[in-house]
Amino acid sequence: METLIETALRDRDQDGTIRWKAIAMLHERGDLETFTAARRLCAGNTVTERMLGVDILGRLPFVDRSLPVLRFLAAAEDDCMVLYSVLIAFGHLRDGRALPSVLALSEHEDSRVRYGVAHALPKIMGVPPDPAGLAVLERLTEDSDDDVAEWARLGLALSTGREVEESGWEGSARGEVDDVGGHVLDP
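Structure tokens predicted for HEAT repeat protein (187 residues):
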């Protein structure tokens, strides 16, 4: 396990194949030892360590243990890329208890963070969707960043089952759209 973590830390490309292969192998392990190592990384001194810890936690089967760590980072972290990773992890964990943390980041000045909000909300708002989450998605459809606005329109369509006019595509029934405009819903 330590070798996989070291390999992922050495890859300077956050989207690099080597880094993500190592993370995928850690996800496959899915054990408490991996969770403990990821939690330790989340408290690391470097952005690279914290991002790796979050990226590992986001797909481990320890939701009750992962959420407090991720919610703490959502409130305390300054780095936009770590916050983005936290939001993507919330989406992967699909737990409504993350909703207050996601809503709190919805007006962040960095568009990458707002993009993470638009990605996470449809997966954590519940059924029926939380009204506060829907209001944030609605607001984000008018975001100055085109990617944020597009993901917010997609999230709104998936959450409500209705088409959102500006999106340039027809929404389908709740949860049936996996790939829109070449974008995979679950990065």
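The beta strands are 179-180, 183-184.
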